[in-house]
Amino acid sequence: MDDISTFDGLARLYDLAMPPARYAPLAAGLARARRPVHRALDVGGGTGRAAAAIRPETVVVDAAPGMLRRARSKGHSTVAGDATRLPVADDSVDATLVVDALHHMPDHHGVVGELYRVLRPGGVAILREFDPTTLPGRALVAAEHAGGFGSTFHTPAALLDLLEAGGFAADVVDGGFGYTVVGTVESEGHKSGHG
Ligand SMILES: C[S@@+](CC[C@H](N)C(=O)[O-])C[C@H]1O[C@@H](n2cnc3c(N)ncnc32)[C@H](O)[C@@H]1O
Predict the structure, then answer these.
(1) Model confidence, pTM
(2) Shortest CA distance to 64 belongs to which of 86, 87, 47?
(3) Residue of the nearest CA to atom 7 in ligand 1?
């Protein structure tokens, strides 16, 4: 079973098991945008936990129909789609969130490429992940693999490298076991050289 099917099956229990997403690191990421944030996507957004924390009007994109049903039941707008093939036009979004989700996605370069493609110049990609070199990170890696997830985790430095290779100017805005990296799309001219 892949991670998407697993989350589809867990959707009814997901919000009972998870604490609310933290507002402060997501707000710090949004503050890095060099343009007004009108349109935001929560990619791998599941039941809308991160969208609810930061901006309820954020559109939740996910590949698990059960997770999207839960998000809709809480009033979120949703779009079904894979993070490597976002059903969204080029240069049409001001901010993207990927919270506790990238490690469940098999093609990290493909995801970063899609975030870059859909973001407008001055837009931001905010990724919240877990550092597998910390003590709780090591426990999480073991627990997710024992639970049958195919999770692949990055250190903050490795995720910075991944975003920079995808054309973003990247920065860590919140460190520790749970950390937040923000990638900014610099300018029109810069963007045309990537994607
Ligand atoms: C741990 S949940 C996180 C959900 C939400 N971001 C949160 O913070 O609560 C991971 C989510 O990623 C989704 N996911 C995994 N692979 C995906 C992919 N390739 N495209 C879109 N969503 C994906 C799963 O369906 C699941 O809803």
Answers:
(1) 0.96
(2) 47
(3) 49
Is ligand 1 within 6 A of the CB of residue 50? yes
Main-chain phi, psi angles of 129, to 5 degrees:
-140, -175
Domain boundaries, given as residue ranges, for the chain: 3-191
Which residue in 165, 137, 164, 163 sits closest to 152, CA to CA? 137
Q: Say if residue 88 is exposed, middle or buried (CB neighbours under 10 Å; 0-12, 13-18, 19+).
A: buried
| pLDDT given for residue 43 in this prediction | 98
DSSP letter string over 109-120? HHHHHHHHHHEE
Residues 6+ apart with CB under 8 A from 98: 43, 44, 83, 111, 115, 125, 126, 127, 128
Nearest CA to ligand 1 atom 4: 46
CATH T-level fold of 3-191: Rossmann fold (3.40.50)
CB 70 within 8 A of CB 15: yes
At residue 70, φ and ψ (nearest 5 deg) are: -65, -40
Q: Confidence band (pLDDT; 50, 70, 90) for 189?
A: low
Question: Alpha-carbon distance 124 to 162, whole Å?
Answer: 15
